[in-house]
Amino acid sequence: MGYQLDFGKVLQGQYLDMILQGLETTMILFVVSWILGLILAIVLTVVRAIEFKPTEFMVAAFVEYHRNVPILIQLFVWYFGFAVILPDSVNDFLNDIGAEIGYAIVALGLNKAAYMSEDFRSGLRSIHPAQFEAARSIGLTYLGAMRWVILPQAWRLALPALLGQTLILFKATSLGAAIGVAELSYQARYVEEQSFRIFEAYGITTAIYMVISFAIMWISSVLEKRFQLRVK
Amino acid sequence: MLEILHEYGLMLLIGEYPHGKLGGLALTLIISFVSLFATFPCSVVIALARTSQVTWLQKLATGFVHSVRAIPLLMLIFWAYFALPMLIGFPIDATVTLVVAIVIYQTAYLGEIIAAGINGLPKGQVEAAKALGLGYVPTTFRVILPQALFNVIPGIINQLTTIIKESSLGSIIAVSELSYVMLQVNSNEVTKPLQIFGILAATYFILCFCLSQATNWLERRIANKRTGRFFVEALA
Amino acid sequence: MIEFDKVSKWFGAVKVLTSVSASVAKGSTVVLCGPSGSGKSTLARTVNRLEPIQEGTITIDGHDIHATGVDVNKLRTGIGFVFQQFNLFPHLTVLENVMLPLQRIRSYSRKDAAPLAMEMLSRVGLAEKAKSLPADISGGQSQRVAIARSLILNPGVLILDEPTSALDPEMVGEVLKLLRRLSEDGMTMMCVTHEMGFAREVSDRIWFLKKGELRFDDEPTAFFSSDAPSEVRSFLSAVNRTH
Question: Chain C residues with CB inside 8 Å of A149's CB?
Answer without folding.
Answer: 89, 100
